[in-house]
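User: I'll paste a sequence; please echo it back and then give the predicted structure.

Assistant: Echoing your sequence first, then the prediction.
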Amino acid sequence: MTSGSLTSPFLLAVPTALAACSAVALVATLVVMRLRAPRQSAARAARQAAVRDLLFAALMGEPDEAVAARADLGRRHGAAWSVAEQQAFGMLPKIKGHSRTALVQVLDDKGAAERAVAKTAAWSWVRRCQGAYELGALGARTGVPILLPMLDDSNFVVRRVAVRALGAIGEPASVTPLLQVAGEEPRLTNDLVFALDHLALDAAPALRTELHRALEQRGGGGRQAALAATGLGLIGDVGSAALLVRALASGRPEVQVAAAEALGRLGVPDALPALVSALEVDDEAVRLAAVTALGELAADQAASALSRWLDSDHHEIGRQAAASLVRLPSGPQVLAASASPFAREALAMAPSPVPGP
């Protein structure tokens, strides 16, 4: 027998043995990892709970306790502070008043705003989102000039977070750029509504200016005008009622619908004649918005005008006319006298009157 015939089987067996050893080692590693995972998870949860308790003590503890907790937070650096900072940003949207102010101060003292600004310039869109969110959560007005250019970011999610961050900061100067970006990108409409809701009445002057400017244009501007009208109703700017009545007569359906909805939300009685007139507009969406708004006004003078639409060929308008009549003082009587199936439906679904004493 040659030496080659002796060594060949041995050499062939080596790879098989190595593969078997590797498989055993891999299985052993996976078992160890699986056994360690619950302990690691429990340890991580314990660390997070300790940090959370420390933050609560810093914000709402007794004076001595709060001072000690803030000193502890101030001494943290690196990974230890990163854990605390992450939890602090998670808490910010959930707290208000003095506690929020105190937490923002803790973050500011640790340079959170500067780190957030640095993140907004990162190549990673995830980091840019994080930076924009943190600037908004801090309510840092110094972040507005940084956030405004982010409305043109190449990534949609970054643009969306920037819109909401600007709303959270509440700087009125951001209203016009916000309207412009949402006007160009309808996907951002809900985010604009969020932003305007946070800005509240501080946004009214800019919204009025934008609506007036758009109404003066012979063509174009309809989308931004509609957004401005929606915003005025959302923030409850009763002083804009006359401008909204003008928008209702603009002849641009998108703007007219938004104006009718805003007037209904505001509940301004002086808008009644304009809303009744809007029932004759040759656009179903405008008529539906006007019918709905008249119900929100709950003015009995609208009963006659609404009753004419109970038999509308457009079933949605007929059903809404009946629903609006239910809200008027004489509405139930008008509905009872109608043969419209929508009238019967509205009466059947109307809440029963509360019995007297």
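The chain has 20 helices and no strands. Residues 170-266 form one domain.
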